[in-house]
Amino acid sequence: MTLPPLAASSRTLPATTYDAILLAGFGGPEGQDDVIPYLRNVTRGRGIPDERLEEVAHHYRHFGGISPINDQNRDLKAALEAEIAKRGLGLPVYWGNRFWAPYFADALKELHADGHRKVLVLVTTSFSSYSGCRAYREDLATALAETGLEGELELDKVRQYFDHPGFVNPNIDAVRGGLASLKEQGLLEGAHVMFATHSIPTAAADVSGPREALPSGEPVATGGENEWYAGGGWYVEQQRAVAALIMDKVADEFPDVPWSLVFQSRSGSPEIPWLEPDINDAIEKLDDAVKGLVISPIGFVSDHMEVAWDLDNEAVETCEERGIVPVRVPTVGVDPQYVAGLIDLVEERHVATPGDTPREREALTDLGPWQDVCPTDCCLGRAAKATIANA
Ligand SMILES: CC1=C(CCC(=O)O)c2cc3nc(cc4[nH]c(cc5[nH]c(cc1n2)c(C)c5CCC(=O)O)c(CCC(=O)O)c4C)C(CCC(=O)O)=C3C
Ligand SMILES: [Fe+2]
Questions:
Q1: Residue 373's CB: how many other CB atoms inside 10 A?
Q2: Which residues bind Fe(2+) (predicted)?
């Protein structure tokens, strides 16, 4: 599966000169009093009563109402600033979130007040879906309208980077490390690798990415029989490609280890189908021969609440019930390769002087390099809203 070359190239923008970088995050609560207001933000427009929100608040409550995600983005911002300084690029980095302070609108006002007009956005998600790409583009367009900065601030966004070496290489290292740990424990014989990403409604998965070339769903690669529907669309296609690539890269040291792509953190009403298998169901159905499990959360870029709770708590417990030794390996976080990769992505788009040659675009699968701008109906499964970074 590849994008039609014409469509892909018409969605590749020429390099230009930017004034600043905006790191666009999800946002999380930072104390017990933040939890319900935060969940109201995340579920905005769906009229969910506070009593129901309290039910999904338990994991935040357990950690004092604090999600680690904001500190992780503060650390990432500092690491990006250091890498930019090292390269002498002279681009300041601002930070804003979809669902918690500093909000996108705060960041846009700050950017404008500081005299910046042309901004390149780096998003903290690597795959293509409504939640991972379009929603960020919509919320940034909404923030531009809210702040009255439409026409004043120009916002472009770097491409989704699921197959960029800066994202893939730390994940290869992590899986290699996880398998090495199982080997040390004498569990390599019965090893299995699960790549975990966020479940989304299958209807959203099926329309993820550019519509003219949507892949149809195929069974997940488990090396065995699988009754689960893992979704069509580019979201799952990209994840299958990255997972297969990682396994291919570790095969020099760890050949023939069985693996699967699994999903986590499903929410919403049970009648609506979401991507399956859920990681816990998948662990329960593992063959008895499996003794050790490497869990690689490739769906996320930091060890935030979805990782700390849904994997380190729930999935680890499911492993223990099955007598399987779990090794949950880290997300990219502030791995120097990831940080450098994000700045490589900036340098594909940003040149010091108009006319300079930009950095070459890297991609490790034949699905990429992904598009810089999305067609108007990309990842669109609901009423269209204004977006930034569309063709
Ligand atoms: C694809 C995807 C990513 C990865 C891409 C990306 O990173 O953006 C992601 C990340 C995250 N999701 C997060 C938290 C939440 N997601 C929720 C709800 C939902 N996520 C969805 C999808 C995704 N989510 C969907 C389809 C829903 C259903 C509601 C809807 O239709 O939109 C809810 C509501 C309560 C609930 O339903 O459980 C919460 C609290 C946090 C913060 C963790 C922290 O605090 O550390 C992060 C990074
Ligand atoms: Fe989420």
A1: 18
A2: 198, 306
**223 ligand 1 Cβ < 6 A:** no
Query: What is the per-residue pLDDT across 177-235, written as a single tens digit (0 to 9) for each?
Result: 999 999 999 999 999 999 999 999 999 999 999 988 788 766 544 444 446 778 889 99
What are the tokens at 263?
């999903």
* Atom 16, ligand 1: residue with shortest CA distance: 42
Taking Cα atoms as reference points, which of 299, 258, 261, 296 lies closest to residue 277? 261
- Residue whose token pair is 């280890």: 257
Give domain 5-163+335-349's CATH architecture: 3-Layer(aba) Sandwich (3.40)
- Least Cα distance to 141 among 155, 130, 128 occurs for 155
DSSP-assigned letter for residue 99: S
Residue position matching structure tokens 């846009």: 108
Ligand 1 centroid to residue 40 C-alpha, Å: 13
Residue nearest atom 40 of ligand 1, based on CA coordinates: 39
Q: What are phi and psi of 208, to 5 degrees?
A: -80, 135
Whether the CB-CB separation of 259 and 296 falls below 8 Å is answered with no
DSSP three-state, residue 208:
coil
Counts for the chain of helices (H) and strands (E), in that order: 14, 8
Two tokens at 2?
A: 């590849």
**Cβ neighbours of residue 27 under 8 Å, at least 6 residues apart?**
38, 41, 69, 70, 97, 98, 99, 100, 101, 103
Mutate to test the pocket of ligand 1, among 131, 274, 312 (most ligand atoms within 8 A of CB): 131
**What pTM does this model have?**
0.95
Residues of the chain with CATH 3.40.50.1400: 5-163+335-349, 167-328
Instruction: Please state which architecture CATH assigns to domain 167-328.
Output: 3-Layer(aba) Sandwich (3.40)
| 202 phi and psi angles, rounded to 5 deg | -60, -30
Peptide bond into 5 cis (omega under 30): no
- Strand pairing partners for 121? 22, 157
Counting from 1 in the atom list of ligand 1, the atom nearest the Cα of 235 is 1
